[in-house]
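Page 42, continued from yesterday. The earlier attempt failed because a stray header line got pasted into the input along with the sequence. Redoing it now with the clean sequence only.
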Amino acid sequence: MMKVNGVHALPVVNSVGKPVGMITTTDLLMEVAPSVPVSRLMTPRMISIAHNRDISAAAKRMRDLKFHHLVVTQNGKVTGMLSAFDLLAAIESKESAAAGTKQLVATSTRTRGRRARPRSTEHK
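This time it went through. Structure tokens are written below.
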């Protein structure tokens, strides 16, 4: 299931959908028979975060607890997974957007009141 979906962690839920643990690719690297139940390999200490928390809270929680994944919940039910990679992508996206905004502001300040001239990108 992990390989097919390209993920490195999955929440383990009980029969009513309540999260009870997490299994990661690292857990699966142990040499075990295919018939071993997931409950024997999973990390029973599942770390979650509410769906409406911001990414800085998620990053702090991951860092403080030294976890690479958080289960995202809403009303006690799993709604998704958040990985350290997801946080890095969000930060990168935010920084790219901020850099683009700064570039736009700088460009508009330079050209205010006069027509913009193309600038050479060559170094002299």
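Notes: The domain at 2-83 is CATH 3.10.580.10 (CBS-domain).
Reminder to self: strip header lines before submitting.
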